[in-house]
Amino acid sequence: MTPAVEIRNIAQFEGQDVLIQGWLYNLRESGKILFPLFRDGTGILQGVVVKSAVAPEVFESVRNLTQESSLRVWGKVRGEKRAPGGYELDVTKVEILQIVPTTRPYPITPKEHGVEFLMDHRHLWLRSTRQRAILGVRHEIIRACRDFFDDREFTLVDTPILTPSACEGTTTLFEVNYFDEKAYLTQSGQLYNEAAAMAVGKTYCFGPTFRAEKSKTRRHLTEFWMVEPEVAFARLDDIMTLAEELVAFVVARVLERRREELKTLERNVSKLEVCVPPFPRLAYDDAVKMLKEKGSEIVWGSDFGGTDETLLSESFDRPVLVHGYPSDIKAFYMQPDPARPEVALSADMLAPEGYGEIIGGGERAADEQLLLRRIEEQKLPREAFEWYLDLRRYGSVPHAGFGMGIERVVAWICGLDHVRETIPFPRMLYRLTP
RNA sequence: UCCUCGGUAGCUCAAUGGUAGAGCAUUCGGCUGUUAACCGAAGGGUUGCAGGUUCGAGUCCUGCCCGAGGAGCCA
Fold first, then answer.
1. A354 and A270, same structural domain?
2. What is this model's ipTM?
3. Predicted TM-score of the model (pTM)
4. pLDDT tens digit string along A94-107?
C-alpha cells in the first residue's frame, strides 16, 4: 500500500512511491508535458506528466484539472533542481475528488487582487501561501504564550465572555439580549482574573474580547484575542519584567520554529533578533518631553495618539515600556502612585517599527475606599462591582497584571501593514462576513 | 461622527464631454522542462444607484449606497 505523505516531509521519500492528497494549485502545460502544482496544506509540490510515459486517461485527467480541484495523486518522488522546492513527483495515477467547474472558476487567481475582493473571499484566501504562513506564525505565538505561562506554573482560569456590565464603563460594548436582560460581550478578562489570582496566586486567561468602537484603522478589530496574566503580590516592576520576558520568549520561539514562514512573508528578521531583554523603560513624563522635542503637540495628561506611538517606538530598536501614565486617562481599577497620586502605576508596551501598543497593564488598586471613590467618579453602577469589591474586603493584597493583544503581536512579528490578515476571520467596523 | 481617496468585463486597471479598451482568468488551437510559462484566436459590459446639465455623460453637477486610508475614540 502506497503511504499517504505530507508535502512538507517530501524529502524523506525520495525515490519512493507516495500518495499526495490535496488540491491543484496551478497547471502549466507545454504540449505533451504537463506541470501540475499540487498543494496539500503543508506545502507545494510540482508534478510531471509526460504524455508518452503514462496511460492516456491519466494525461487527460490531469490536463483537465482546474485550479483548486481536489484530488489524490500517486507517483514517485525525485530530486529535481529545476522544480520549485527541489523535488518533483512523476505522476502515475490520479483520482479526482471534485473538479472545479470552468463555468465557475476559482476566484482567487495567482494574480493581484484588491483588499475588498480578498476579504469577501477570506474563506478561500486562507489557502494562499502567504495567509498560511501567517496562520502558522499566529499559532506559534499562541502556543508560545501558553507554554510561557504554563512553564511558570500559572493556572489557566477561563473568564466569561458574557458579562453583566462594563469592565471599564467608558468603552463601547456589544450588547446582547440575555433572556430579556441586558448583557455584554467581554472587553477584558481582567476583573475576573483578579478573583482568580486571589484563588491560585498566578493566573492567566486567553480568549476573545470585543470592542464596539467605531475605530477604522489598520490597528483595530472589533473582535480580537488577548492573553492576560494576573499575579497576586506582584508590583509594577514585577509585571513589567514579566511582560518583557513574555515578549522576548514569544519572539525567540517564532524565530526558532517559524523561519520558513517569516521568509515567505519577507520579514526582516534582524529587526526581531534584537528583541532581547532588557527593553528600554520610559516614564510617561519623559515620553511626553521626548515627543515634544520631536514636534508632537502632546500635552501632559493626555494619551498618545497613533502618531505619537509611532514616533516613540521609532526611537528604539526593541519594544519599549512606558510607565506612570496619568491616573485620569487610566481605568478606575489602576493603583495610583502613593508618592504622586496623579500618576498611575501602569505600564504599556509599544512594539517597534510603529506597530503601537501591544501590552497594557499595571498594579491594581487594593483599597476598597479608593475603588469606591473611583467607581463613583466615573459614574459606574456600583451594584455591578460589588463582587469585585469583595476581593478588597476579604484579604486584599497588592497585585498586578496585563493584557497582550495577540493580533497586534502577530502583525508586528509578521511585519504586516494591517491586523486584518492576522486573524482567520476578522471582524471590523464594516466587516462581519464571511 | 468627521476628513481624504475610490467604485468601468470574473480579477487588476486604462479611456480631452464624442465608436467602452488592455493584461490576467475562462473556452478553443499550438508547443517534450515549464517556473505568476509562452504564442495565436474567441466569448465576456445596465461604467455602484437615482436624478440633473448637454446635440451627446464612464467623464460635469446634486443626493444616496458601498469600500479603502486616516482622525476622533480605543488595545
1. yes
2. 0.86
3. 0.93
4. 999 999 988 888 99
